[in-house]
Amino acid sequence: MQQNKGLWQQIYQTFASLKLSIFIFLTLAVASVIGTLLPQGLMEQDLEQHFSPTATWWIATFGLHDLYRTGWFRFLLLLLCLNLIVCTIQRLPKAIKLLRYRDDHVDPEKLTKFAHHKHFSTKLGWEQTKDVLARVIAKEFGTTTELQNEGLYSAIAEKGRWSTLIVYVVHFSVLIVLLGALIGSLFGFKGFMNISEGEATAGVVLSSADRILNLPFQVRCDAFEASFYETGAPKDFRSDLTIIEDGREVLQRTIRVNDPLTYKGITFYQSSYGSSVRNAEVEFQDVDSGKTYKLVLPYRQAIPIPGTTDRVQAMQYQQDMAQFGPALALVLFREGQEPSGSWILVDMPKFHGNRIQNYQVKVDHVEQSRYTGLQVKRDPGVWIVWFGFVAMLAGIGLTFYTSHRKLWIWAEPAGEEREWGKVVIAGRTNKNPLAFEQDFNHLCERLQEELKQKDQRE
């Protein structure tokens, strides 16, 4: 039983350790730098186009191409949450105990040992001394609380007592930010969709995996427009979108870069654009028989050549093939043989390479359509993160600009037994001692001045 208790105590102390906090923060900082420098959202097959095989293996193994959704990054966030909670549990009771503590007496000998203390003499009696001390301190510092001390005057004054708990507001706000980040990581997604003009789709290709997520509604691109500078660089591009749900058009909106559309918590950003092939009009001439076949080939759909068992498919299109102009990649499927194909140069119909087996091929026309590229994102934890971030900024600001200041006042007024009375005042702060020293000295100067003026009037 004692061994189990000792083990749990060790685990508890480990999670309460400042060293663990520093380790987690440094690891998260390094990971965030990697996530900033390394392009995020790439699919694993796209990594090979940007990195060497070795680098690709490391990136894919540790999920660095989608770092913020990896299990180990989430584990670090969870570990940081536990660390903050345990640190708060360990230290908060002590802070509350200090907050509740109240002085019941003031010892003048102890006050003279404070770093900030002053003592001076006065001929004023009890009531006059008490009045000056309470009035000046209330004006310059804060309301005094008088303590029971028969025959003597003792009191305390405090400012910013609750500031000792502000650090736990920062702890709490960090937990809120981490909670929002975990919710977004677990229940959100990020992907993209390409939609041709006039078409609608519900499929989102996820960035974190090579799979498609179907939305509970469709997005239709009614129109796409792009404008360009004289240099050819894009100036502006926009998409007219319609949300279709249960067969009904429920929302229409034009989006631009930095002006997205949000529907049911899912945001659509204008990300890119391009053109795609709808179909191609192609002539096939059988060099053996001399017959010519004119076909309309839907993009990436195999079509039979009439009167034969052959099928042909348009597989890919390039606007400029090695500076020879546009080219269409065709594949011929023939029974009992491996598929064969070739790039057909559109602007060079008599090019000798425009041939697939016994067919001389000429492309008459390629019909293209423009498509809009949308980045699709859902982050249900974003508002929690914003709330935590605002609370954190407020907490950090209050932590820097507020402090717990406390004064102890002891006075032995003049009377029948003594001609001169004594006043001892001391102060302490938990932050910014230089500023406190200036305020403390100014307060003591005002007290001495008021006591002296009052003494002269009396």
TrEMBL record:
Is ATP-binding found in the keyword set? Answer: no
Q: Which UniProt keywords apply?
A: Cytochrome c-type biogenesis, Membrane, Transmembrane, Transmembrane helix
What InterPro entries would the database entry show?
Cyt_c_bgen_Ccs1/CcsB/ResB, ResB-like_domain
Annotated membrane-spanning segments are 20-38, 72-92, 165-189, 383-401
**Residue ranges of domain ResB-like in the record:** 18-335, 348-441
Decide whether keyword Transmembrane helix is in the record.
yes
How this chain sits in the membrane, per its record, is: Multi-pass membrane protein
Domain of life of the organism in this record? Bacteria
Where does the protein end up? Membrane
The name this protein goes by in its record = Cytochrome c biogenesis protein ResB
